[in-house]
Known about the structure:
Layout: H1 5-15, H2 26-29, H3 32-37, E1 45-47, E2 52-54, H4 56-64, H5 75-105, H6 110-134, H7 147-157, H8 169-180, H9 182-185
Antiparallel strand pairs: 1-2
Amino acid sequence: GSVRDIRVRWALEEAGLGYDDQLIGFEDQSKPAYRARQPFGQVPVYSDGKVEMFESGAIVLWIAQRSDQLMPSDDAGRAIVMTWLFAAMNSVEPFVAELAGIDLFNADKAWAKARRPEAEAFLRVRLGELQAALGDRQWFANDRFSAADILMAHVLRDLRHTDIVADFPRLAGYVSRAEARPAFQR
């Protein structure tokens, strides 16, 4: 699967921060105690003893702000990481999620069969724009691996049930580089 807790665990690994994880089942997600921590019943939930958060993008940003490995200390560097971090979640992920939702959960439905060609076409335009923005760099934010790459690579991995990313060789190489990182492997 592609549960968004991967993003948080990857960020913690890259930052060199220890963590404990707690596996929850679907039945736990509807319990009032869990809903008090995550109002939508999703994962992940994060707590470091000082703060408690939900929403993987916010958590990754929180971790990154405490890590030189994931977020540069200068204002311009921080700004570009935050820009690409939000681009992953807001400008790329909706297109990926639509296609993945069609393919993985609704492929046999008539509306999905009718919608898929247009959804894929829109996605391919966005991936072309994304590949052009990456250019010859290895990573999105100043050619330095950052929290933005954790989110962008994770978003693109949600297409691994297709061969679409392979049609964008610089993006395919980008995802491969991200997945080869020791922190991701752990």
